Amino acid sequence: MKKERQILVIFPHPDDETFGVAGTIAMHVANGTPVTYACLTLGEMGRNLGNPPFATRESLPTIRKKELIKAAEAMGIDDLRMLGFRDKTLEFEDDEQMVQMMEQLIKEVNPSLLITFYPGYSVHPDHEATARAVIEAVQRLKESERSTVHCVAFSNNHEQEIGPADVINDISSFAEQKKAAMRAHLSQTEWLLKDLEPKWDSGDAEALQWIQTEQFWTYRF
Length: 221
Description:
Its cofactor is Zn(2+). This is LmbE family protein. This protein is an alpha/beta fold. It has a single domain (7-218), classed as Rossmann fold (3-Layer(aba) Sandwich), CATH 3.40.50. The chain contains 8 helices and 7 strands; from the N terminus they run βαβαβαβαβαβαααβ. The protein has helices spanning 16-30, 60-75, 95-109, 125-140, 158-162, 175-184, 186-202, 205-212; strands at 7-11, 35-41, 79-85, 113-117, 148-152, 167-170, 213-218. The longest helix is centred in the last third of the chain and has 17 residues, at 186-202. The radius of gyration is 17 Å and the shape is globular. The protein starts with 6 loop residues before the first strand and ends with a strand.
């Protein structure tokens, strides 16, 4: 794995980073690369309230903020930015203001690698709004100033349209950090962990493959 100078991760919701890139983040941190994570919302409109429920609509924002901090600690992130947008409203934000905010963030952090969602292939409206703003912000930079951009894609048709992943990281040595990050987001993941943890323990090949690899598409401007 190439050693990066600085990594910037931009996602809209707490737990987006955990499902898609937690092992990769932990791997880069272990390699001595500083990681900044900018999370746009607190995911306060998330469907899950725990299983069995332990949160309410009123308490969920506070709970998810604490979960995000705990997950960042599990991955080794020491620069966590919470940008304060409201969950499920990013598609209605002013596009130009979103792009300018991303551009300022990118210029400040000056990453050699930026990780976000792939526009058009990330399903959720908040994912798409974030991806569009990030990619447009990078595109506005001089070509010599642009970082490499690795994107997470998971729509049903993404491989048919953008091809196979450009980067597949073996994160088996960091699977425990990824599991810890998932456990940190308990209000959203408890139902999933009840299904996955027995499979991990039993050596289920498909479940282990999911926890031991992460893949990315390089965005080509």
